[in-house]
């Protein structure tokens, strides 16, 4: 492993809640989102031993910023966590990549000399704040100019996933096999205690609630297509209708938080850096095939880092849908044996605004457990975007 410089942005702590089912019967449904995020913030400062008064800023991702997640939830959560009133906070939205973008913004602030200590975090309670509920009846968040640019109209993410499966010739059995593998890996990781160091139990939930040990291709094969409509079937005759609840990420609740400092601050406070933020990028991509941005994002981050695919020891590619990871692997040539080694969002869950920080937390700990050097994380995002981040274990 390499050393780190005083100017490097280094991760000194990363925690997450277990992920709960994003439904009314989920274990975390009774926890307000601000309290869910406050829990991760409290745990992070307690585990690192950093006085919250020393935190320069909290940047948190949240996608559906309405109802219980409205009014700058990052600020409300830090006050609920007992941080001093002098600590500011802001909430960002880059859709599913919101808290991965929060990590990038935090690292950029450290590298620019604007922060000594900053927390990047994320939260989403999909059981309390349903996806899409910020779009009010009669509203038009896209505008007439965008509609003129895409006269045939864009599509929901599930249809994008179907289009990707068709374009990359991915069969239903391939999708289901990958998805069953996600559950198998996540269940094995939990049983072996590989999540223990990153988890901050809450509301009696001590492990990820959605993981289903024993999931098989045969059981998944019995599920019906989740996004079929006659209108889309007529518009896209190439679709085979293979996307189901079993090869998609489920509705989820959760939060996560990552503390980033300068190398000099880590040395001054006696903090042990787990990894340094090596390189970050964000890209735009085709908003119809909106989930494919992970492919150019991976290419761009590797080029900017001066690394090759073979240099990367572990990959985390968000499993919004199985075709996302399989098409990414097909185009990049990445070895799937290095991808989501402790399972991914299909099994663990995808609490939208929290997922970037959740995956970063899992990646940091996985690198540590395996004695590996480089990790690459990438996430597709609604509207046709993606983030990619490379970290280096220290």
TrEMBL record:
Indicate the segments forming the Thiolase N-terminal domain, all copies. Answer: 10-262
Record GO terms (molecular function): acyltransferase activity, transferring groups other than amino-acyl groups
CDD domains, per database record: thiolase
Identify the catalytic residues: 96, 350, 380
Residues in domain Thiolase C-terminal?
271-393
Membrane-crossing segments per the record: none
Q: Which domain of life is it from?
A: Bacteria
InterPro entries linked: Thiolase, Thiolase-like, Thiolase_C, Thiolase_CS, Thiolase_N
Q: Which UniProt keywords apply?
A: Acyltransferase, Transferase
Please give the family membership noted in the entry. Answer: Belongs to the thiolase-like superfamily. Thiolase family.
Q: What is this protein called?
A: Acetyl-CoA acetyltransferase
Organism per entry: Mycobacterium adipatum
